[in-house]
Amino acid sequence: MSDINSFIANDRKDFTKGELNKQSLEENPFKLFNKWFKEALDKMVIEPYAFHLSTAVNNKPTSRVVYLRTIEDNGFVFFTNYKGRKGKEIETNNNVSMNFFWAEKERQIRIEGRVFKIEPEASDAYFASRPRKSQIGAWASNQSESIEDYKTLEERVLYFEEKFKDQDVPRPPHWGGYIIKPNYFEFWQGRQNRLHDRFAYTLDEQKWNIDRLNP
Length: 215
Ligand SMILES: Cc1cc2nc3c(=O)[nH]c(=O)nc-3n(C[C@H](O)[C@H](O)[C@H](O)COP(=O)(O)O)c2cc1C
Description:
Layout: H1 2-10, H2 29-42, E1 50-57, E2 60-67, E3 70-71, E4 76-81, H3 85-92, E5 95-102, E6 107-117, H4 120-128, H5 132-140, H6 150-163, E7 175-189, E8 197-204, E9 207-212
Antiparallel strand pairs: 1-2, 1-5, 3-4, 4-7, 5-6, 6-7, 7-8, 8-9
The structure holds flavin mononucleotide (FMN).
């Protein structure tokens, strides 16, 4: 451990790849998000659509990674099991935060907002586009519940494969999409000597107010 601790305490990386200034901002943070997202794709960032989703119940935050599947004009859509831990937490408190870190671009985007279930038809359409094995998996997994062993999961997969043999797999009612509607964005661009650029967008009625933040 002491080797690892010595390495992580001393491995210092300086950020040199870009700057974010008032001129390069957009009035609408979704526009800047899309611009940065395209740049992440161009730069071959590994899975730029994977983000940390944080929920909080009883003042206890918890995070997990999920995949962003659609960027709407007013929100970000991901898919999951509505009955898993995150689904239950969202039912209790629909204030969530998202965090994207794109190391290759030395960028972080932090988003806060409220999350809502999308229309069932939209979940149906996305579910239908998934590979069959993932569709079966959505039926087989009681997400976040404890399970005896891996074999039990495989047996459940076999059960649902048999059940839906020779037919399309319907969307499980407990599986679908959520849309996160932001009221706060923060764009972070790493700079030298830890003097990073940070711009916060805060929604006030219909208008986005912009502030530069100290690093
Ligand atoms: C790269 C990556 C992508 C993931 N994408 C999803 C996803 O889109 N939906 C999902 O339910 N879980 C996804 N997971 C699994 C979640 O991180 C998590 O384990 C699962 O959703 C259960 O979380 P919960 O117990 O908080 O509900 C992903 C994990 C990783 C590492």
